[in-house]
Fold:
Amino acid sequence: MKLKLIVSTAILCGILVVGYCLAVTVNIRNHRFKEQHSDKLASTNSNILFKRFDCPEGYVRKEAPKSSFETWLRNVPLKDEGASVHLFNGELKVNQRVHAAVLTFDVGSEDLQQCADAVMRLRAEYLYQKKAYDSIVFTFTNGTKAYYSKWREGYRAQVSGNAVAWVKSAKPDTSHACFRKYMNTVFMYCGTYSLSKELKSISIEQIKGGDVFIHGGFPGHAMIVMDVAIHPATKKKVFMLAQSYMPAQEIHIVKNYSEKELSPWYEIPESGSLDTPEWSFELTDLKRF
Structure:
């Protein structure tokens, strides 16, 4: 886990150990999901998400506003079919069996862009492309707001213990490279704990693209809903999920090992628990920006 402002260095070390052990436990617990299979609903080798994956039989994608986060996510670029998931250091993720596709967004060269970070990255990239710069803001774990609009003006976070001061110490910079540096700072001081407090809870019946399954904690996990399809007759919905994980790795669409014929789509489970290859959520963990 990354540094959080509310913990001391000594506590942080303990969290790192516990987080690593729990991550290993999660992988062991979910070993049953690691069976290799091809995705039945992968239709073409297109490098656009909605073109790569067909809807399940009888389901359709409900049209969303062209400028919406939903539509943007459906159109995210993917790496070539069969691409592997790489870690921040260039190595391959040990388990290459959980992903159906890999998004093209860079992971960076530091162990920062993990689970909640991937969610924030996609949300911020969408707003950046819309030039909605004032809407790009996240909350550090200690409650401090990090405004991208101020970062663009040259303000930087100076951290002392649990206190944060924003000081103008750089030249104004509107480049995407500078935006990525802002995001790295967000990744460093935000996480599932802080993001879960920012988002608002919604019922599973309301699920749509851009929503987030999130369990805030140390460690916690977060996965973003990339797409939703609906059955016109039954009104049932299916959805597709993406994640990063620990250590920091490329964002990827996850497979559904519980229902192979449906993969990478997921049905709303009747059990109240959503099982994915590397984490299990309660349906009450669904939230929205």
